[in-house]
Amino acid sequence: MVRNVKIDPTWKAVLKPEFEKKYWEELTEFVRQQYLSGKVYPHAKNIFRAFDLCPLDKVKVVIVGQDPYHGARQANGLSFAVNDGIPLPPSLKNIYKEIQNDLGIAPLPSGDLSRWASQGVLMLNSVLTVLAGNPASHKAKGWETFTDAVIKILNEKRQNIVYLLWGKYAQTKGEVIDRQKNLVLISAHPSPYSVQLFYGNHHFSKCNKYLSQHNIKEIDWK
Fold first, then answer.
1. Where are the domains of the chain?
2. Domain spanning 2-213 has what CATH number?
3. Could you give the C-alpha distances from 189 to 3, 72, 82, 176, in angstroms and in order?
4. Where are the alpha helices (DSSP H) in the chain?
5. What is the mean pLDDT of residues 155-172?
């Protein structure tokens, strides 16, 4: 199974034990059948895009999302991001507003956040695939076990990472993180339902201040 997983080599090396487990075999068979029988997002080549753009040794920041967008041409393998040219979803609009209020800069209009990922922002969804038009359709199939392992590995092998955990779901997923070795920032989710509790969290300036204090290059959040 391991040799068939097309993922960045730095991640492949540390995730090898996961690729040899029973749940992974069952998950990959389920996902394969879903792609064969219906429309699934993101495109298969982008399932591990977050990892490919942000190798293990380059991670500075982790943003935890839930599952990919289920609308046409939206999902691109990065949490909260959409393909270039696609209208910004409400949560991403609200993230951009907070960046502008916090840092006094206007983010670029594109929702393809590969510009952040290439700087060391791991934009990690808990579930990496979804059936078109059917949110959370690939929940509890094994992806959560895999992405829990990703966070555990980061916690064991790296330090001085900033984790942005927005909403109860992400906060529960981040309970394993060592707060003594990393900065964990929590707030409400940026969705329209809770955005008034998200605004004013100043996570982007706090993140850059922490990175700077540890002699790590800050993120350009544009």
1. 2-213
2. 3.40.470.10
3. 37, 23, 18, 20
4. 9-19, 22-37, 49-53, 90-103, 114-117, 143-157, 168-173, 195-198, 203-213
5. 97
- Would you say residue 2 has pLDDT above 50? no
- Among 8, 52, 57, 67, the active-site one is 67
Task: Map residue 138 onto helix, strand or coil.
Answer: coil
Cα 41 from Cα 130, distance rounded (Å)? 5
| Alpha carbon separation from 63 to 2, 4, 201 (Å, rounded) | 26, 27, 14
What residues have CB less than 8 Å from 99, skipping those under 6 apart?
105, 107, 204, 221
Nearest to 139 by CA among 36, 42, 44, 31: 31
Active-site annotation holds for 67: yes
12-39 per-position pLDDT tens digit:
999 999 999 999 999 999 999 999 999 9
